[in-house]
Structure prediction request, 807 residues.
Amino acid sequence: MSKNYIYILLCFLFVSATANAQRVKVSGTVSDFDNKPVGGVIVAQKGTINATFTNSNGLYQLTVPAGDSIVIEFKLMSYQTAERTISVPEGRKEIVLNIMLRENATELDQAVVVGEKAQTGTMTKIDAGKTKLLADPTGGSIETLISAEASVSKTNELSNQYSVRGGSYDENIVYINGVEVYRPLLIRSGQQEGLSVINPNMTESVGFSSGGFDAAYGDKMASVLDITYKKPTEFEASTSASMLGASAYVGSVTKKFTQITGIRYKTTKSLLGTMDTDAEYDPTFIDLQTFMTFELFPKWEINFLGNFQSNDFKFTPITRRTNFGTMTEARSFLVYFDGWEHDKFLTSFGAFTLKGSVNDKLNIGIQASAFSSYERERYDINGEYELTDSNLESEGGEGEAGNMLGIGTYHDYARNRLSSDVMNLSHFGSLKLDNHLVKWGMSFQKEKIEDKIREWEMRDSAGYSLPNTGEIVSVYSSLVSDNSTNTTRISGYLQDTYRFNRNGNLFTLTAGVRGSYWSFNKEFIFSPRVSLGFIPAGEKGLTFRFATGIYYQAPFYKEYQKAVDKSGTTVIELNKDIKSQKSIHFVAGGDYKFKAIGDRNFKLTSEIYYKKLSDLVPYTVDNVKIRYSGENSASGYVTGIEAKLFGEFVPGTDSWISFAILKAQQKINGVSAPLPTDQRYNLSLYFQDYLPGRERLKMSLMAHLSQGLPTTAPHTGYDSNVFRMPSYKRVDLGFSWELLGEDYSIRNRSSFVGAFKNIWLGVDLFNLFDIKNTNSYYWITDIFNTQYAVPNYLTGRQINFKIVADF
Prediction:
């Protein structure tokens, strides 16, 4: 027999033996840490070419040879690779292996790039890591990062408040680890606001929906910001300092216990010094947060989330000079002050959560949380002013005295206090059934709010007290409130996410209902919501979405306060006939992923929407203070279209540009008027770059251009004398130098340097072009009752230095 025949025979015997060897089927489900199935995962026997993929429901099946232990590897670009060692003894026919994958964030050229999976729902994932070196006057907040989204408008760099698709600040709901958080209720200006309640250093993931969100989220009409804090997997720590304050956090892990704790301090004294008012500013904002997790036993844990925040704002004005108007009609407003302001806002919340898995399909949990706030606002400020023509082109830019247009005095006084306590007990759970993921939740909430408001304003023009009746001396406006509420709110939801495949087309259908009852007005609201995601066969770069539902704005504190005039004094009464404001959402959009500019990754996202509004409570906005009419007397609509181009404009970095057009209208007592948040266009840009050949030098740029918001003169109603502020234009530029990195050789030559992972030095240029943006107006009235709108400008150009160190 020739050698060739012997070789063929040996090969045939080997193949036959292999084919007849016992095989074991390994199957299971791959899901993420939200218990959502993950499709497209490579499941492989490590070290071989034996592999398969999970389907759209996260299911897989892999056949492996029996014998010794083998390693099964799970890989997907946007997730951390996982490995599991299993024993496959002879005689075993099937092994079930379920696994959860954690989303991955990897550093490329020091720019954090998060892998993206197809977005079939309305919740967008945002990378919180970009806040670390962001040029941001608020000190690096999540809210500033999402302000570059197409649907978001943020026109006050001193505030963390934002408007989404024509909604007010109060229409946005914020969760931290499933706990709804609240902002102080008396704050009237961005100067008082201080730190965002979200600590970006402790944040692991950010989900944001600008409309059409699931029934799992509460009763708000505009948006959801869903924050999840980290569970450290190893020791980590970081500290930073700048002219705006300092922060530090530390995370640690033992066998059963993890914790991450952060402290932040902020002062805006230098930033406020760029405004028109020369004053002694003393803002002190402090925040302490912790998130702890303890594993009771496998698949069960108890965690605690705690927060304490103190915002203290002291203000002693001296003088103010504001030049405004046009070149032909220039005006100068000069004020000499006497008085002070001292505001204090103390808030705290805590939450205990017990959750775990009953089995591989059923997860349940209970949560008890409490929120408490004490707010105190006090001021007593007297101002003597003069309003004149001025020549803005005079030497020095101070202007020259011209014709006197108005002279007088005003006196603002307030002694306001408010306390609020919210306690919540809730149950939640999820159940996986084949291609379905069912979620539910129920909550019982007690709300106790007490306020004592005493504020008034006196105006005097040329020796005449306004309003001038010729008989008595009266104040221009006054407000009195002495109210308390102790109410109960019960709510619950049920929703199902169904994933299915039709001829290669992948569908994700989420449908749910939400119900809520409030004891104050005896109102029950019912909110059905549905969304559908579609990935066409053979077009993995295309995704389409549609969502609709009924969304309510359940009154909390300010919406049901009705102002009643009693003998010249405005008294706040509580309107028990108030109803929840209502919005019906229709949202359609999609994503298109493609390669461009040197085969780099890009994604174009676009959406069109329409919101039908009813039972609206008209309101006005002054800085960040929202005052409601207290009655459901309006209806309206919001419609718009928006687009966002996201990608690697520079290799290794993420940047994006977004653009939105909208129209937000309301009809009050039959009269049409724009909503206070009607902003017809909004253009935002976030751009990153680095110096070629010197990648350690980074640059980030945040730019905004948006139409001015509509406003009205005070005490003229909600639908008359509407005019627009100038457009909001701002550019913030930041540079950072990587002084030390994890792979630098100097780390091995010094024990001190070896203690650090990374060190960055940064320089920020806030308001690069020193543009005077108008935030609100101060209104001057002469004895003839003619009013002049004096713009209140926001901050000017400022340089900021910072240092960030990771351990």
Q: What stands out?
A: DSSP finds five helices and 49 strands in the chain. The CA atoms of residues 97 and 662 lie 49 Å apart. The two ends are 71 Å apart (CA to CA). The chain has a mean pLDDT of 86.
